[in-house]
Write a sequence for this structure.
């Protein structure tokens, strides 16, 4: 059969249509899971294509391309994330119009966390919860086996798929529509991960991704889930909280070699595991294996690597091994520069560990990119300044902040944090209410949650004002990246001090010192890690209070 797989669409959100149609997309990359599914499908004789809506210049262009593929297709498989579900729903609706009999399957983080909402909001025939590497092929085979792989599905299809974990079906019977109940989610064991074939990298638009990230690269996930349990995190709620399943070192190295053979001129491999260094020995073995393969000429010497990980497992020997293997980037979850906020996030690490990791990584010539969630509910102005200080500290150490950097804590629907919020009525709704203003995901469950959660922070709570204003300023530049993120924050601080003079009295000098450092480093570097100009910061001309605050204002922020 012929299957088309689409990546989560963040390009054509409502905001994108209105403001960002032609902005450079930064949120696109080779979907490891989709390409793993594709590889298993190909093993079973199916023909698979991958379309990433994010790399098209306009919705019209994407629709035209999709339409031409749909003419020949039997199945559309859509990968969806929480912030992409609205746009993905539109893709599904369009596909259904063009091909009313098309079988549509939906999977990914959002359908896994909330399959009920995913089935309710879209016209998908089947939702698969969890890791569907093998399941997509199994479902297609089962439906093909009974000759019922067309929309609308009936009770024969329902029965053929009964008992398959994670698979929910929309079927029609006696003129009515029915949904099969939730029966858990699919999780692969370490042994199953070892048996998965190399993802079908060559069907992904790798050249378009190179335009975005500057190198021909792949996202390679060698493990699933995370050994930690941060309540805001949806990775752990998609897998098993606190339990990692992983490929063996030999298989990781074997898949690397196969990937290099499949992709001419591969330049960079990003290990997209949630916590790559969770096992010290394994990490050392992988790095040492890479060095050996490079010495034997099996892997190109100039192939670089990156990973995403925690700050408390980046031991010196691990970093040394990474340096030897030619690591060029390490992404770390710093989250906040304020100890109070970090405690609230329950991240299980300290500010000192975070700053220490930044310095250790930078000392080895590796670019360090920090994930930040600037404000938590009830954060104070000083907490936010501490996080801005951390953002500038990253830049000063050759690093960067995440391009999709968040101005506030975001807990997606379906995560532990949201469940706890409901239980304890701890007021996260502040964040969600702010988020709903700019997120494409307007009007559905987030609004309901806000209504449910109550709203205890007053409209003019300074942090709330600051975050909203920062976002508005940043968006007025077109899109959010390092430079507009910082410029937006400084402009918002200016407005805040005007609106709430009492905060100005306390914080103007600190804001001033952070702002001056940001301008100086932007002028010296001119671009961020991905080559995007820092011009908004360079061109910004603000005058905060210039009173002396001692060591860059850090004493006031309680930063050593
Ligand atoms: C690599 C990565 C990226 C890369 C590549 C994205 C990509 N297309 O794969 C880049 C940097 C481009 C990226 C961008 C974004 N990302 Co990202 N990313 C990741 C990361 C680090 C790894 C993803 C991964 O490889 N997972 C492992 C594989 C096995 O899982 P998978 O790809 O989802 O596939 C499995 C299942 O989901 C399912 N499945 C997947 N597709 C389909 C399709 C069908 C039909 C079916 C049935 C099943 C199915 O089966 C697959 C195989 O097991 C995760 C965090 C993490 N460590 O997990 C965040 C993560 C997935 N990203 C996230 C987000 C939000 C985004 C952005 C929207 C950022 C933003 N602006 O907010 C964008 C949009 C992405 C896009 N357009 O594709 C969130 C999703 C949260 C959520 N609840 O939705 C995560 C979990 C990070 C986080 N902590 O919040 N991301
Ligand atoms: S350490 Fe990172 S990936 Fe693991 S649970 Fe915490 S936030 Fe999620």
């Amino acid at each position: 059969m012929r299957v088309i797989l689409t990546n989560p669409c963040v390009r054509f959100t409502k905001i994108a249509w209105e403001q960002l149609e032609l902005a450079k997309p930064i949120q696109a990359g080779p979907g490891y899971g989709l390409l793993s599914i594709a590889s298993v499908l190909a093993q079973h004789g199916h023909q698979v294509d991958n379309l990433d809506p994010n790399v098209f210049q306009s919705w019209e262009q994407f629709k035209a391309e999709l339409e031409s593929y749909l003419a020949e297709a039997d199945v559309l498989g859509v990968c969806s994330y929480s912030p992409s579900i609205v746009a993905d729903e539109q893709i599904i609706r369009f596909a259904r119009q063009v091909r009313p009999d098309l079988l549509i399957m939906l999977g990914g983080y959002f359908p896994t966390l909330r399959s009920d909402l995913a089935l309710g909001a879209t016209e998908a025939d089947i939702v698969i919860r969890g890791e569907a590497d093998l399941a997509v092929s199994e479902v297609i085979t089962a439906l093909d086996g009974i000759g019922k792989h067309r929309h609308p599905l009936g009770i024969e299809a329902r029965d053929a798929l009964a008992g398959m974990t994670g698979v929910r079906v929309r079927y029609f019977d006696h003129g009515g529509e029915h949904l099969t109940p939730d029966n858990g989610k699919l999780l692969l064991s370490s042994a199953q991960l070892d048996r998965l074939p190399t993802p079908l990298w060559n069907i992904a638009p790798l050249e378009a991704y190179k335009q975005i990230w500057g190198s021909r690269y792949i996202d390679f996930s060698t493990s699933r889930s995370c050994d930690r349990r941060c309540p805001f995190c949806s990775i752990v709620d998609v897998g098993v909280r606190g339990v990692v399943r992983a490929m063996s070192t030999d298989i990781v190295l074997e898949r690397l070699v196969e990937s290099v053979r499949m992709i001419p001129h591969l330049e960079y491999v990003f290990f997209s595991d949630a916590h790559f260094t969770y096992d010290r020995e394994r990490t050392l073995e992988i790095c040492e294996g890479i060095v050996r393969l490079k010495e034997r000429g099996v892997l190109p010497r100039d192939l670089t690597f990156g990973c995403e990980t925690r700050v408390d497992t980046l031991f010196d020997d691990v970093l040394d091994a990474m340096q030897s293997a030619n690591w060029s980037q390490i992404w770390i979850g710093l989250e906040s520069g304020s100890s109070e906020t970090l405690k609230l996030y329950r991240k299980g690490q300290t500010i000192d560990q975070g700053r220490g990791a930044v310095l250790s990584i930078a000392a080895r010539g590796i670019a360090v990119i920090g994930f930040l969630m600037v404000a938590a509910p009830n954060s104070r102005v000083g907490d936010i300044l501490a996080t801005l200080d951390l953002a500038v500290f990253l830049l000063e150490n050759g690093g960067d902040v995440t391009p999709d950097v968040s101005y506030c804590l975001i807990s997606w629907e379906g995560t532990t944090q949201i469940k706890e919020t409901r239980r304890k009525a701890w007021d996260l709704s502040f964040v969600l209410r702010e988020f709903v203003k700019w997120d494409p995901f307007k009007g559905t469950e987030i609004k309901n949650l806000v209504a449910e959660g109550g709203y205890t922070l007053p409209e003019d709570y300074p942090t709330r004002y600051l975050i909203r204003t920062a976002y508005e300023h940043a968006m007025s530049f077109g899109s959010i990246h390092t430079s507009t993120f910082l410029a937006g924050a400084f402009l918002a601080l200016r407005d805040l001090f005007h609106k709430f003079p009492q905060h100005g009295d306390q914080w103007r000098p600190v804001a001033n010192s952070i702002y001056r450092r940001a301008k100086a480093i932007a002028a010296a570097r001119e671009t961020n890690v991905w080559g995007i100009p820092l011009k908004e910061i360079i061109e910004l001309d603000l005058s905060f209070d210039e009173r002396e605050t001692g060591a860059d204002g850090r004493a006031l922020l309680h930063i050593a």
